[in-house]
């Protein structure tokens, strides 16, 4: 059963946590690892190094959009490839994220959190909440 009085605030809590996580990871890549260092890491794991800036910008701008509730549901869906890519990189290292080179636990959790956000909605205090079409109904003309 869903408590309709508190559900919008639960969705808000989920949205704020997810948005802040994306912003924190963008900051980590920009300031601590540096763009050149992150590009080098991508090259070491077999991904094109030119993806460094698009990933960092997607995390930063996407995190801000999710945090503020500016079409956050759509942004969570659009960021799933970034999270699934991180999962593919870290999963071979084991499950727990404190394993050497990080395991798949955290990226898997974040991917499922983004999916939950997309399904639940933006919740309370969203600047521009996104509405997904209802499955099985014709699209509006």
UniProtKB/TrEMBL annotation:
It is a multi-pass membrane protein. It is found in: Cell membrane. Its main location: membrane. Keywords: Cell membrane, Membrane, Transmembrane, Transmembrane helix. One of its GO terms (cellular component) is plasma membrane. InterPro entries: DoxX, DoxX-like_oxidoreductase. It holds the Pfam family DoxX. The chain crosses the membrane at residues 12-38, 50-70, 77-96, 108-127. It comes from the Bacteria. The keyword Nucleus does not apply. Belongs to the DoxX family. This is Membrane protein. It comes from Bosea vaviloviae.
